[in-house]
Task: structure prediction
Amino acid sequence: MATLVPRERQDNFSFVLDRLRLGQPVRQYETSVLTKSGALVDVVLSMSPVTDPSSAVIGAAILARDISARKYSDLASRVGLEAQLRASEARWRAVIESAVDGIVVIDARGVIEAFNPAAERLFGYSEGEVVGRNVSMLMPEPYHDEHDGYLRRYVTTGAARIIGIGREVTGLRRDRSTFPLHLSVGEVSIGGERKFTGILHDLSRRVQMEEQLREQATLARLGEMAAVIAHEVKNPLAGIRGAIQIIGSRLGDRPETRIIGEIVGRIDALDEMMKDMLLFARPPRPRLLRVEVALLVASTAELLRGDPAIADVQVEVDGAAPPIEADAELLKIVFLNLLVNGAHAIGGRGRLQVSMRSFADTCEIAFSDSGPGMPMEVQEKIFMPFFTTKARGTGLGLPTAKRLIEAHRGTIAIECPPGGGTTVTIRLPALDSAAADEVLT
Result:
């Protein structure tokens, strides 16, 4: 028998011979044997000891069945199954990687195991940067510290607060900025281990639209109030001012004349505030004509000389801008407001920089000063109506500027570098050459 068993398997076969010597049969023993030609054949052996009349083992009866075909079939099945598993895994990987929403898979300890491309775009991390780290890195406080406790509580008690339900949460990007998300969490068991799959949908656009709708509703109510004020306050103010001036003219050079002048000045300030409120609440529809931005900036800068408090401010204009289709008078209101704000920021002395450039179909005008700048909490509120950092400001200048720029289908943004200074950037749609020729004709 030893000549039939390959050398590398003879040690394993020795226990079979030992059992036969003890008079014990061996059933369904799978091995390989050598043929006369030296080829290996897979067989299953059934062996029974052969004894003499004294029960001494003198040999063995061996039944061998060739199972090569079955083993080849089993191997082919396994190879086919593995191929199917690989194909299935590739399909699911393709689905996850092409998903529009972010998908994050974590284990029961909160460690990230998968992070699809949409999640990379949402948070600004690559998959390699987050896999193996705790998912709480994607959450701001206080959720960052609460998450692991919540996960442990769920694994221990089964009490779910979000799994299978979904809710709005706040995400933390790599640059430490936050944004709103809708999070849906599902639970699976793979090989007896719990895994949690989070599907993340960015709500930034929806939240922005909701804020715009609320702002529009607020402006509509403000417009109604401004109309009432204009009718009930502004017109009587004009009458009061006229009456006070008549009284003052009759007083001559008496000491009370100075008081009359102060009253008129207060009435004029109140009248200006009414005008600002009306302009903000009900801005006129722009009358669009071809406007040369550089000329408009230069003519607006000349108006600064009319205010003695800021007459020493120099305005430097550089760059070039294409013509735009706009209402020059409305843009002049915006430009003057920005120049006056910049002049106040530098204490009425020094230089303001106005830079112009164009790219694609956009004209960009940037107003910069070298003042102290603004803290972040002020920047976040600077376009809110009636918010002001000035002792005698109405808080309507920049909000009105924003409304007028948006009426021109443009944008306005404020940036304050860490080193100080403020830059207000306006972007307006530029006229293409065909449109410019049409305006000229």
Observations:
- The radius of gyration is 42 Å.
- DSSP finds twelve helices and 15 strands in the chain.
- The longest helix spans residues 204-251.
